[in-house]
Amino acid sequence: MNDDELTRLFRSLDEPAEPRTAFADTLFADLERMTSGAVARRQTSVRWLLLAATLLLVASLGAALAVGSGLVKLPFVVAVVSPTPSPSASTVESVTPTPSATGSASPTSLPATPAPTPSPISVAMSSSASFSLLPMAQPADFVSHISCNGSIGPSDPVALVELGGTVGVMALRDYADPGSPRTACTVGDSPPQYIGIAQLIDARHVVIRGNGPAVFAVVDLPEVRYHWFALPQEAGFRAEFLAVAPGLDQIAWESSNTAGAERKVHLTTTAGDQVVAALPSITGGRCGSPDDSRQAAYTHSGADLYVLDQVNHSQSVLVVLEGTKQVLSVAPPPDGAWPLGGDPAMAVWSPVSETLFYRQDSDIWKWTPGSDPQRYLPGVAWLYPTITPDGGHLAYAVPAPNHGHDVYLVDLAHDGSPQLIGKARNLPVFLNSSQLWFKSEAQTGCLSQAATPLVYDINDGSESPSIIDWVRNVWPATSSQNY
After folding, report:
1. Across the strands, what pairs with 328?
2. By CB neighbour count within 10 A (0-12 exposed, 13-18 middle, 19+ buried), where does 180 fall?
3. What is the DSSP string of 254-318?
C-alpha cells in the first residue's frame, strides 16, 4: 500500500454523511485487498497500520456501528501470525466470530456473546452479624469456662475436638496452616450444664447449652462474648434446639407435647415464630440407634435447612426447607412404617453448593433445589459421610464383612469413583481440605486392640498418629457426625 492509496483510503472516511453498513463492508474489502500482498513482506508494520486505520474508523463511524459492522475485528483477522495471504474461515471463527449475513444487515447487531466464565467457588466466611434473637438475661450462677488465645480468621478451617490427656476439655483447633494447627480456644472444667456445645456455627461462633432445657447462648470467638436466648415455652410442650442459621438471623427448633403426639418444626426470626413442618408422633416411644446422625443443619449460605428426625427409625423423616417453604420430604410409605434399613439417614450438605447427600435403602441419594433426588452411589450403605471445605473430596465408612469398617474416598471435583483408603478404619471426619481424621479398628485374634486416632493425608496417602481423641464438630468442612 503506497502513500497515494492510503490518502484515498482515509479521505473516503468522509464520504457518507450517515455511515452505512454497505460502506463499512466495501471499506473492509478494500483494506483486505490492498494489504494482502504486503502481509508476507511487512507483517508487523501492516498490523499496526491496520490497527491505526481501525481506530480512525471507529472514531468516524461510532463505536456501536463499528462493532456492529465487524470493523473492529479487522486487525485481528487480517494480521494473522502465519504468513498466509488471507485467513481461513476456521481461523476467523476461532478468534473473533464474523457476523452472519442476517446479522450484518442490521447496524445494531452485536458480536456473539462469549461463553460465560465459570464462577469461582465461594469460600465460606464466618458471620460478622450480632446475634439478638429471643434474648434473655445471663443466668446468675453462670461462670465462663471458654478461653481463647490469638485471632481466628473468618475463613479458617476449624475443628472442635477432644485432645488426648485432656478429659472433659474440648479444644477449638485452627487449621489455617494444616502443617501446624493451633488450639485457638479451650472449653471445659465447668459445671456439666454449661460445657455442652450444641453447635459450631462457623469459625467464630458456637452455641452452648445453658442450665435449662430451653436455655442457650451464641458465643462470639475469640472475644468470648455471650448472647443468651431462651426457646419459647408453651404449656404442655417441650422445646428442643435444632440449629442457628449461619447469618445468626434464624433459629430452628422443635416443639412436642408431653405425649409425643404433636411435634412441629419452628423457625424464629426477628419477624416472629412460624411453624414450617410437622413431624411424626412418637407415641410408641423413642427408638434410636448408635448410628443416628445429626438432626438438623443449614447450608453455608443459610438458604436451605434439613431436619432429619430419627426418634423412631420405622417413622424417620427427612425434610428440607428453603426459607419457610418445604422443598423436599422423604417420609414413610402410606402404611406408616419404613422397612428395616429403608429410612433416610446420614445426611450431609456440600460445603460449596446447595447439594444434599443422604442414605436410603442401601443407596446414596443426591438432591439439589428444583430437582428430584437422584441415586448417586448405588449399593452403598454409608456411615459418617464428610466433605472437605473446598467441596473436592467426600469420605465415608461402610461396615466390612470380616471386621469393623472400611473408609472410602471419592474425588467429587472430577466425578471419581469410591477408592478404598483405609481397611479397619472408622468415624472419618475431614479437618480441612487435605487431612482426614479417623480411628483404626485393628484386631488380633478374638481380642480387639484399642482404637488408634490417625490423620490421613489425601495428597500422598500417608497416615500419621493424631493427638485428637474425638472430633465433635468441623467447619467449613461438613460431616454427619457434627453435634
Report:
1. 320
2. exposed
3. EEEETTSS-EEEEEEETTEEEEEEEE---TT--B--TT---SEEE-TTSSEEEEEE-SBGGG-EE
Give one word for 188, left, alpha or beta, with left for phi > 0 and alpha for psi -120 to 50: left
What is the torsional sign of CA 13, 16, 17, 20?
A: negative
Q: Would you say 244 and 199 are in contact if contact means Cβ atoms under 8 Å apart? A: yes
* Measured distance CA(224)–CA(140) in Å, rounded: 17
For the stretch 163-215, pLDDT in tens is 987 777 899 999 999 999 999 999 986 555 455 899 999 999 999 998 888 99
- Note whether 395 and 408 are within 8 A (CB): yes
CA 465 to chain centre: 29
Assess contact for 267 and 324: CB atoms under 8 A: yes
Distance from C-alpha of 195 to C-alpha of 170, rounded to nearest angstrom: 9
Burial class (CB in 10 A: 0-12, 13-18, 19+), 58: middle
> How far is C-alpha 72 from the chain's CA centre?
41
pLDDT of residue 120: 55
Q: What is the pLDDT of residues 354-413, one digit of tens each?
A: 999 999 999 999 999 999 999 999 999 999 999 999 999 999 999 998 879 999 999 999
Report the C-alpha gap between 74 and 417 in whole angstroms: 49
> Distance between CA 269 and CA 314 in Å, rounded?
33
Q: What is the dihedral of CA 158, 159, 164, 169, to 10 degrees?
A: 100
Give the cell for residue 90. 476456521
Q: Picking from 10-19, 406-415, 461-470, which range would have the lowest pLDDT averaged per residue?
A: 10-19
Residue 273 one-letter amino acid: D
DSSP 8-state secondary structure symbol assigned to residue 335: T
Please enumerate, as own/partner, the contacts of 195-200 that have beta carbons within 8 Å and a separation of 24 or more. 195/145, 195/168, 195/170, 197/160, 197/170, 197/472, 197/473, 198/241, 199/241, 199/243, 199/244, 199/473, 199/482, 200/158, 200/160, 200/472, 200/473, 200/474, 200/475, 200/482
Nearest Cα neighbor of 347 from 324, 319, 322, 369 is: 319
Query: Looking at the DSSP assignment, which residues form a beta bridge with residue 312?
Result: 287
Helix %, strand %, coil % of the chain (to 5): 20, 35, 45
C-alpha distances in Å from residue 68, one per residue of 21, 58, 106, 229, 362:
9, 11, 8, 62, 58
